[in-house]
Amino acid sequence: MNSLFDKDLGNDSPVDAYLEAIETETAEGQVEEEASTSWDTVKTVIREVLETVILTVIIFFLIQTVVRNFRVVGTSMEPNLHDSQYLIVDKIGYRLGEPQRGDVIVFEPPNRPGEDYVKRVVGVSGDLVEVQNGQVLINSQLIDEPYVVYAGSYSMSPRRVGASELFVLGDNRNSSSDSHNWGMLLQDKVVGRAWISYWPPDLWGVIPRDAPSASATVGHLLENLIPQE
Q: What value, to the nearest 5°, has the Cα angle with vertex 198 and ends 107 and 193?
């Protein structure tokens, strides 16, 4: 009887074939499920990468419409701004208001289109600007310029600042290409106001309107806050 049982339920029995079919179907299902899971993971990764890239691009363009960075080139603004110093420029402030005397601005000069200069606003629309032996007069009044250390050695006959124009000078007067050379600056050529110095670290701080830049650095402010022994 054992031999008959073995013969009837051997490797080729219907039960074995059925079990083998179930195992094969299960294995194929597992492979398909694993493949589906892997593809879902790939799609998730791709979607997250695309979302990150798109968000980064949107943030970049939003930031560029409000502020931009600027690298100082040359010594025309010494001793307040230095060659290779990096600034953040406020591009939106002048959409809400007008440039003021003493503002440090970044702009495209009329004599060098495509480049950016940084200078200080000395005269605004309607002002009569004159330079006498390096001393600046606005509307026949000598102005106080505490930010100027290297005064100019030149004179300039009176010039009226027209509508939508600015008269700008570098703080290092004898080493600056500015309005005393090439005339008035159209306001629509202004990129924005130099707002913050962020590099090098020892020059971190805001760019003040009517004071030397060194007086507004973080280091200077901390020195004044911390009592000295």
A: 25
3-state helix, strand, coil in the chain (%, to 5): 40, 25, 35
Pairwise CA distance, residues 87 & 106, whole Å: 10
Q: Do the beta carbons of residue 106 and residue 138 sit within 8 Å?
A: no
State the catalytic residues.
Answer: 76, 119
Q: What SS3 state is found at 229?
A: coil
Closest C-alpha to 93, from 221, 187, 225: 187
20 pLDDT band, cuts 50/70/90, is low
Quick one: pLDDT at residue 1? 44
User: Can you name the residues that pair with 88 across neighbouring β-strands?
Assistant: 69, 196
Residues 6+ apart with CB under 8 A from 208: 147, 215, 216
Distant-in-sequence, close-in-space partners of 120: CB < 8 Å, separation ≥ 6: 77, 102, 103, 104, 105, 147, 168, 169, 170, 171
Task: Report phi then psi at 6, rounded to 5.
Answer: -65, -35
Distant-in-sequence, close-in-space partners of 133: CB < 8 Å, separation ≥ 6: 153, 155
Q: Quote the mean pLDDT of the chain.
A: 85
Separation between Cα atoms, residue 175 and residue 74, nearest integer Å: 9
Structure tokens at 14: 């219907």
Residue 63 has pLDDT above 90, yes or no: no
C-beta of residue 177 within 8 angstroms of C-beta of residue 76 = yes
> Which residue in 138, 194, 208, 196 sits closest to 167, CA to CA?
138
* SS3 state at 196: strand
In terms of phi and psi (left: phi > 0; alpha: psi -120 to 50; beta: otherwise), the region of 29 is alpha
User: Which residue type does 142 have?
Assistant: L
